[in-house]
Amino acid sequence: MRSTAEELRTFKESHVWLDILDELTQCIEVYKQELLDIPTGISANNPTTAVVLTHMGCMDGLIKGLAYVSNEMIDVMIEEFENKQRNKNSGEAPAETEPFTGD
After folding, report:
1. Among 4, 5, 26, 45, which one has the highest count of C-beta atoms within 10 angstroms of its own C-beta?
2. d(Cα 52, Cα 47) in Å, to the nearest integer?
3. For 11-20, which contacts have Cβ atoms below 8 Å and span 24 or more sequence positions?
């Protein structure tokens, strides 16, 4: 990681990040609305079940991914940086981090 924990904290409070959050929030709302509109599209287009479920899964994945970026990513990066610093200072091997599961 090239950034320090302090740089990440500063970025998290910056107008640039707040503007990015606004855009991410708008995207999340668009995808949520699209997910809600799927039943209307089904009745009009009569797609197969597989197509509908695939589309719903895509929308759900996009929503979860954007939520992670907007709500957790910077904090996870700060925590990872601080863990590496602690391990480096204590001489311990780096701890394994849990992969993002979207929950």
Report:
1. 5
2. 7
3. 11/74, 12/74, 17/74, 20/70
Burial class (CB in 10 A: 0-12, 13-18, 19+), 5: middle
* Average pLDDT score over residue span 18-46: 88
For residue 102, give the DSSP letter.
-
Q: Which residues does 38 contact at the CB level (< 8 Å), separation at least 6?
A: 52, 55, 56, 59
Does the residue 93 lie in any domain?
Answer: no
Residue 47 burial class via C-beta count within 10 angstroms: exposed 0-12, middle 13-18, buried 19 and up: middle
Distance (Å, whole) CA 15 – CA 18: 5
Identity of the residue numbered 16: V
Range of the domain at 10: 5-87
Total tally of structural domains belonging to the chain: 1
Do the domain assignments include residue 101? no
pTM of the shown model: 0.68
Question: Is pLDDT at 94 greater than 60 in this prediction?
Answer: no
Q: Check pLDDT > 60 for residue 35.
A: yes
